[in-house]
Amino acid sequence: MTDPFVVVGGDAAGLSAASKFLRDRADDRDVVVFERGAWVSYAHCGTPYYVKGEVESLLDMTTLSPDDVEGRGIDLRRDHEVIALHPDRDVVRVAGPDGEFDQPFSDLLVATGARAVTGGFDLSPAGAFTLHGMDDAAALRALVTPPNDPLEDGDLPDAVDRTRVERYANHPVPDSVAVVGGGYVGVEMAEAFTARGVDVHLFQRPDRLLVPFGEAAADVVADHLEAAGVHLHVGGEVTELLTADGRVSAVAHDGHPDDPSPLPVDAVLVGVGIAPAVAPVADAEVDCGGSGAIAVDRYGRTSRDRVYAAGDCAEARHVVTGEQAWVPLGLTANRAGRAVGATVAGTPTQTGGVAGTAAVKAFDAEAARSGLVDDEAARAAGFEPVSTTITAGSRSGYYPGAAETTVTLTADQGTGRLLGGSIAGTDRAAVRIDTVATALEAGMTVDELERADLAYAPPFSPVWDPVLVAAKVLAGER
Amino acid sequence: MTDPFVVVGGDAAGLSAASKFLRDRADDRDVVVFERGAWVSYAHCGTPYYVKGEVESLLDMTTLSPDDVEGRGIDLRRDHEVIALHPDRDVVRVAGPDGEFDQPFSDLLVATGARAVTGGFDLSPAGAFTLHGMDDAAALRALVTPPNDPLEDGDLPDAVDRTRVERYANHPVPDSVAVVGGGYVGVEMAEAFTARGVDVHLFQRPDRLLVPFGEAAADVVADHLEAAGVHLHVGGEVTELLTADGRVSAVAHDGHPDDPSPLPVDAVLVGVGIAPAVAPVADAEVDCGGSGAIAVDRYGRTSRDRVYAAGDCAEARHVVTGEQAWVPLGLTANRAGRAVGATVAGTPTQTGGVAGTAAVKAFDAEAARSGLVDDEAARAAGFEPVSTTITAGSRSGYYPGAAETTVTLTADQGTGRLLGGSIAGTDRAAVRIDTVATALEAGMTVDELERADLAYAPPFSPVWDPVLVAAKVLAGER
Fold it and tell me: What is the CATH number of domain A5-38+78-114+275-345?
C-alpha cells in the first residue's frame, strides 16, 4: 500500500490541502492530518468579535467540525504533535496520546501556522493574555463576562481548555486593561474591550498605529479609537507587567516621561505580533527564508523533495516585489493549501502571490491596505516611490450617507507602476481596497488604474470613485 | 485674436473639457460653452432620489453653478442652442435669445448629451412623464408632493421650468402610476414612487428587468421590488396611454392576456431609454457609428478635423470588445470631456475605454454590472462565452450582517479572458463590481482574477470574497 499524503496542522492551509487532494486524487492514497491541539478549521480573525460578544459561540467560528473533516474521508488525528521531520527517510515523528511513532509519507505538507509572540513578557500571571486561537478567545471572553453569566456561550465546545476558562469564571470584569501593540489584534481588541465596558489603554511603540497601513489610514483609525474613549499611548512602550497576589496589577511604561509611575490596570493583552511556527522543520534541513518562515517555490515546494509548506508558517511570492515574503493571512493560507492539495493530487497548481491585502475595523472606522504602502518598503524593494493621499466622498455628495474616504496610493516614479495603497473611512471604505489589490495582481500602472471604468451611482459611489481620484492626482504628480 | 475653443453642451463632458482646457492651455485662447437650456453641470443620476425626497433640493445635485462656471473663466452662454455645424468654415450656427449668429472656433467639442426616448407615446397629457434632467425631476417631485406642501424644495432655483412645476402644484398625489420600462430609471423610480405612497405597476417588455445586468442580478432586483409591493408586469407591453379630461387615466397593455382591460392609473412614467442627441451634427458630415452616436477615435476626435465629441452623444472604445460602442454613463462623460480638454490644450490624452460599469439600487437591493454580461453579446463580439453564477456571503458567516451576494462571471472559453460580470445583494454588493471592472481594464483571465489577493476580514468579506468564489468556480468549469 502506498504511503499517505501527510499534513501537519489541521487549520486553514492543512485542511484545504487535504480536502482538495481527496477531491482530485488520481490514486488511492489516503490523507492523514496531524493536529497538535484540539481545534481544527477555525477562524482566527473572528476571535476579537467573540470576545466582544458579536459572535455568540466559539463553534460559530469553526468552518468544519472534526466529524465534518472525517466525513470528507480525512484521517484526522487531533492531539498529535509532529515533533520531527525526516525527509531523508520519508517519515515524520509524531507524539500522540499513546506515545511516539514514525509516520511514513509519500508527500508531506507542513502547515503548522504561526504562534503569538509575547514580547518578552511573562504571561503566566492571571490577567495576562495574548489572542491567538480559540482557547485564548474563550479565556478572554470569560474575563470580560460577569461572574454570574459565565461565557454567554451555551455551547462551550468540548475542545475548549476548561482550566483556562475556569480561571476567569469568577474573575470580576476588569475596570481597565492595557493593550500592548497597535496592530490588528490591538485595535480590534480595543473595540472589543470598550464594548464590554472596560477602559482601554492602547500602547504602541512605533509612532503610529497599524504601521503597514500607512500614515493616513492610521490617523483615521486613531481618531476613531480616541473618539470612542480609548486612551492611546502611541510611541509608548510597556516595559514591564507588574503583579500583586499573582495577578496583573499595573504596567510600567515610558509613555508619559513626566509621569513615570506605573499605570494600574486589571489585565493586559499583548498583541505584538506572530511568528511562523517552524519548530518541526528545525532540524530537517528544510530551508527557511530571510523572514524566518519556510521558503517555498511557486508551487509551495520546500527545499526538500516531496515536502511542501503552506499557510502562516511559509513564505509566498509578493506580487509587487516578486520576492518571497512572509505575509500570514487567511486567504493566502486557504489558497496555498488548496493549491498544494491539487499539486499532490496530480495537477501542478501555483499557490498564487500575496499583496498583503488586509482590512481592519475600529468602531465605525474601516481601514484596508494592499501592496507596498510604505515608501521605505518600496525603496527597499528597488522602487522609487511617489505617493499621494486624497480625501473624497464615498457617495455622491448630495446622497445621504456620503462620508469622507481617505485613499493613499503609491506608484513607482519611473514606470508608473502601482505599488500599493490604503483606504480608510466609515462608509464601505474597506471593500474598495479590492480595486487596488486587483490592479496590483494585474501589474497595472497608475495611469491604467485612472482609466478603469469603475461604478458610479449616487447611492454607492460618486462620479469619480475615491480610488480614481487618488489615481488621477498621483498620475498628475508623476 | 485666435478663435476660441467652442464647446456645445454645458453638462458633464462639456464643462469638464472647458475646465481642463483652461487649467492646461498653453496659449491665450478662450473657451465658450453654449448650453441650449438653463441648467448646467448637474447630476442626472441623482434625479430619482430628488423625486423620492432623499435629496432635498435640486441645487444639491448641481456640481457647479453658472457663477462657478464663469468664475473659472469659462464664457458660458445658457439658452443658446447650436443649430448647425460648419466644420468646413470652422464656425457653428447658434440660436440665442437675441437671434442667430455664427461663432467661429479653433477647436470644437460636441457634448450634446442624450435625450429620453418616448417609446412613441404622446406625453403631452397631464400625468405623463419621462425623467431626463432637472425640469422633469422638478415636475415629478411636484406630482408626488401633496398640494399644500409644494415641492419641499425651499430653494427652487431660477433655472427651473416653473410652468411645468405649477402644472402639478395642485395636482393630488397619484394613487397609482404605471412605470413603462424596467431599466435604471424604471427601477429607481419604482422605489421613489413607492416611498411616496404611490402604488407602482412596472411594465417591462423583455422577459426580465435590467437586461444588461444579466438574469441572476435581475432576479434579485425583481424579488426586492415585489417584496416592497411593486406590481411587476415583466414581459408586458404598454400599448397605449389613455386619458380622460386631458389627463392620464389608464394604460392599455398586453400584460394580462386573460384580462385585456386597461389598467387605471393616475400617471405614467416612460423610462424606455435614451438616444444620443446628435441633431447639431446631422448635416455636418460628422460620422456617426453603427449605434447612432458620434464616432470618435481614442482621443475623442470625430471624422472632421478639429471637431471632437464626448459624453452621451459619442461612442467610446469598449475595453472588452475593443470596438466602438455607445455606453452613455456619467464617469465616461466626465473622463472623456476632461481628456478632450487636455488634448485641445496641447497634451494629447486618450479618453479611456468603457466597460459599461453600472450600478442600481432597488430598495435594499444593490445590483451592478460590468463588461459583457450577456452570453449573446459576448458571442456577437466573437467570443465563446462560458458563465457561472454563484451565491456567497458578504462577510464571514458568523459575523452580524452577512448577506447573500450573487455573482455572475463570464469568460471566454478559449483564452480564459474575463469578459464581464454582475453582482447583486444587500450588503455592499454594488461596490464589489469595481473588482470586475478593474480586472476588465487590465484584460485579466479568470484564472488571474482567482489568484487576486482580495481583502478578508470578518466584518467586511469572507475568506473567499464572492467574486473570488465565482472566479474559482468558473476557472474550474473551463
Answer: 3.50.50.60
CATH superfamily of B5-37+79-113+275-345: FAD/NAD(P)-binding domain (3.50.50.60)
Domain A367-477 CATH superfamily: FAD/NAD-linked reductase, C-terminal dimerisation domain (3.30.390.30)
Residue A326 in grid coordinates: 512572509
Of all residues in chain B, the one with the smallest CA distance to A440 is B452
Count H helices and E strands in chain A, helices first.
Answer: 12, 25
Note the ipTM here: 0.96
User: How do residues A359-405 score in pLDDT, each as one tens digit?
Assistant: 999 999 999 999 999 888 899 999 999 999 999 999 999 999 999 99
Report the candidate in B37, B41, B36 with the shortest Cα–Cα distance to residue B59. Answer: B41
- The domain locations on chain A are 5-38+78-114+275-345, 128-272, 367-477
| Dihedral angle over CA of A304, A310, A312, A318, nearest 10 | 90
Element spanning B335, H or E: helix B330-345
- The CA distance from B55 to B134, in Å, is 13
Neighboring chain A residues of B358 at a CB cutoff of 8 Å: 455-457
Mean pLDDT of B81-88: 94
pLDDT tens profile A254-292 = 877 777 799 999 999 999 999 999 988 888 889 999 999
Residue A453 in contact with partner chain B when CB distance is under 8 A: yes
Q: Which residues on A lie below 8 Å from B355 (Cβ)?
A: 452-453
Would you list the DSSP string of A404-420?
EEEEEEEEETTT-BEEE
Beta strands in A256-332 (DSSP E): 263-264, 267-270, 274-276, 307-309, 316-317, 324-325
**In angstroms, rounded to a whole number, what is the distance separating the alpha carbons of residues A157 and A137?**
13
Q: Do domains A5-38+78-114+275-345 and A367-477 have the same CATH topology?
A: no
Smallest CA-to-CA distance from B195 within B177, B213, B168, B214 is with B177
Residue B359: which of A55, A353, A460 has the nearest Cβ?
A460
A457 touches B at CB < 8 Å: yes
In CATH, what number does B366-477 get?
3.30.390.30
**A24 at the B interface (CB within 8 A)?**
no
Rounded to the nearest 10°, the torsion over CA A356, B431, B411, B299 is -100
Alpha-carbon span A465 to B329, nearest angstrom = 14
B159-170 core/surface letters (b: 16 or more CB in 10 A; e: else): bbbeeebeebee
The beta-carbon neighbor of B46 closest among A399, A432, A450 is A399
Query: pLDDT averaged over chain B?
Result: 95
> Could you say which residues from 359 to 388 on chain B have a Cβ atom under 8 Å away from some Cβ of chain A?
359-361, 366, 368, 370
Architecture of domain B128-272: 3-Layer(bba) Sandwich (3.50)
pLDDT of residue A153: 60
- Whether pTM exceeds 0.90: yes
Q: How many residues does chain B have?
A: 478
Residue A314 is given by DSSP the state B
User: What DSSP state is assigned to residue B173?
Assistant: P
Flag if B356 and A332 touch (Cβ within 8 Å).
Answer: no
The CB density around residue A88, as the number of other CB atoms within 10 Å, is 10
> Is A437 near chain B, with CB under 8 Å?
yes
Q: Do A434 and B442 touch (CB under 8 A)?
A: no
Q: Which of B107, B80, B104 is nearest to B94 (CA)?
A: B80
Residue of A256, A225, A226, A224 whose CA lies nearest to A239: A256
Beta-strand relationship, A404-412 and A418-425: antiparallel
Active site residue B45: yes
